[in-house]
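User: Cellulose synthase-like protein G2, Sesamum radiatum:
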Amino acid sequence: MDGPSLPLNVRRLLTTSLVVNRLHMFVNGIAILALFHYRVTTLVRVFKTRETPLLPYLIVIVSEIVLTFLWVLHQAYKWRPVKLEVYPERLPGDEKLPPVDVFVCTADPSKEPSLGVMNTVLSAMALDYPPDKLAVYLQDDGGSYVTLNAVREAWKFARFWVPFRRKYELKFPCPEAYFSAEESAHERFIGSSEFAAEKKIIEKRYAEFQEALGKNSVNASDSVSRDHPPVIEVMTDENGDSNLTEMPLLVYVAREKRPGHPHHFKGGALNVLLRVSAVISNAPYFMVLDCDMYCNDPSSVRQTMCFYLDPKVSPQIAWVQFPQKFRNLSKHDIYGGSLHHLYRIRQGLDGLRGPQIYGCNFVMKREAIYGTEKIQKEIDLNQLKKSFGSSNEFIKSIFKSYKPLLPEDRKPSAALQKELQLLASCTYDNGTQWGEEASGLQILFCCGGLYYKSYFTLMCYAYIILESLYTVPFYGLAIIPPICLLYGIPLYPKVSDPYFIAFAFVFLSTRLKHVQEVVSFGDSLWTLLYELRVWMMKSGASYFFALMNAFLHKLGLHEANFSLTSKVVDDEQTRRYEQGIYDFQVSPLLLTPLCSLYILNLATLILGIPRIFHTGDQFFAQAFLSFFGVIVNYHLLEGMFLRKDNGRIAPSVTLLSVAISAIILCCGSLLLIY
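Assistant: Predicted structure for Cellulose synthase-like protein G2:
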């Protein structure tokens, strides 16, 4: 009789982190209660005596309430941190593994260069997974002939790259990553003359591939269209004499786009991929990749199967999320590109069994989107069409007994092509519940924990949704205390006051907790500074404009829009990044608020020094807040006044910021009225 099988995955509780986290919550919570006791009693006294203006107190109290509220929500991430471990070597044989579809989305080859996009496609094709159970779909929202030709070139190169990666067990399935790193072939092949000879051939073919893409990308921006019919092309060998079972499926998809028809951005693109793939390969699982996020580990899909093939875990999950990692990070990680703060959060979400979707790098069950478990067997066809649209073939595909229509030679029949044209049309969703309520995957991006709910999970998702509220305390505490310092309005207890201990403790314990998290994760102390700067930049600029856009959209004064991030590499920006120098070649809208607040705090700190010496410890806390902000954001001072390179803050932005800070200072007298 066989004994119990070994587990495919293990969830290990991080006991030390759990104890430290909960102890910090308890102690810091007591200090916060003391802080608000001081605020309430002081506010009551100010109401009665009017000894000082009321408005500054109210703004500071509201800022502290919002900050505390977000802090409480954030503690849910730290309640039960765990580490997940998987054992793909314990999976059943390849014949028992389920098929997987891979979705890659791109939109504009002038902003998302073809070489990078095709490297992502090739990395997916070269995954360590049965090739006959792997299908890769590239959705081109620009309908660009440049991208279509690039996919054709990628297919040609893949015929050599995929077998080479599999044969020599390369650690990097992405060609660009492989050729730019140390040798990653299995050690038993290194030194082999056969391997060396084949590698030279592959290097030559990759150079030819790069050259072909370079020639193809001329006038890339002119190839992008926002008004085009659907185009679906399945890559295959025209002569038909090759063994296609040794190659994953590769499909180019350009959904129909017409002016006046909403396309729902990436969510809409993925919905089209779901429909098109349903009648071509119809894998029960699909992976979503951004066009610049290649597969770093060839065993990625096998790792997800350690959860999906676990009968105890699989019924409870809808998706498996992989972390985002960036290649060639500088030792000066000034922009927080390592994303380790997200990894620390992820450990807490794993403990709650409810990770959110990052928008890419996840593997999801197809039935989690369709909701097939809720569909009754005897349901009327017309009822299904209300949800899934007019395609009978697509409706058939939602049932497990369905067999895709693509023939073995991978050349779609005329009937299949007609069906694909329908499924990729811009009007397919019209009149359906899917189309009227929202785009299917956009719902998922907005509300994650569909399959598991708890108070802590809800707190985590509430924090994600409300994180932009950090802009309220950021502006409140960056403007009011320094102005009150200048006008002699005390907002905090004296150093000799026992309540000062509560304020000091909350500040110090929060900073020390950050130190503990960073150090325990193996990062340097510089990470503390870089992460704090990123948080301030987001709170002062990104979150502020996000809230503004949300309010304007709610009032009907602004339409939701999506701006494609350029992936084109700038050598000068790269050089500055490697040196740990900030690049301020961004929109003045993002820089002006931050620079204005910096100048305001620097000016009030300098002008308020005599008052500090004259009144003793009454204004120490306010002066320290300004001092802390000035020191942490010293890079802004450099960018405005000390640097002369092209990456500095533009003089026009500096002058505008000086003017805005002067206006704020002059208007500060209004605080005295109330």
